[in-house]
Please model this.
Amino acid sequence: MTKINLQHGNCVELLKNIPSGSINQIFADPPYNLSGSNYQTVRSGKMVVCDKGDWDVIDDILEFNETWVKECVRVLADNGTIWISGTLHNHPSIGIILKKLNLWIINDVIWFKRNAAPLLSKNRLAPSTELIWIGSKTKKYYFDYETAKILNGGKQMRNLWEINAQRHLTSHPTEKPESLLERIILLGSKEGDVVLDPFMGSGTTGVVAKRLKRDFIGFEISPEYFEMADKRINKEKKQSKIVYSDKLINKDEQLRLLLEKQAKYNVAKV
Model:
């Protein structure tokens, strides 16, 4: 039976209670440090001050990232992988820290959002990508190459992933698409493995981990988002469906059969 362990609090403190080497896969979507009076965003077609919440205001992003990444590396299994998402605002520091901690950097995945929102200002290029570092403690890490190949229509999967941005299912400002997490968890873990998300947010990683029969541990510092994630993950039923597009499923019967076998239920066409 799938085990779900959700805890409200600071992930650095909560990680200290996890035994070393006990986690098979970590997906982390840490604060990008985009909030503050000097940062702007678009809301309802107008430029406004970016304020995602106190959790997104970091005084020293390098120190912050190194602290939580160290604890994640400690709890990661020798054959496990850590996946860390970000943008140009925080991702360079993550790369430096992974090298400093002597991790084997497997890939830098570029998530390309073909339908990304247009940019109102005319002094730079419209941001359409996010980055995902993949690292491990040794070169003997788990990676499901065959599944990756099937997901890519029978061809070797590259590190450029074209996955459209999706309308958020919750009010969380940085919610990731379930389809993105489905791919990550399918490639980086097996059924029955333990998946950890130290910045759980609205609970997307937990929903997908439960759907794919992985045990899940999730931490969230915001009371509002913890409650949101708790309800969302607990609401997820055993017979929920994997989300992939009609186009992708209809193109590859092998993909449909694989996904149904992996999750032991039907694939949802969206």
Notes: Residues 212 and 262 are 7 Å apart (CA to CA).
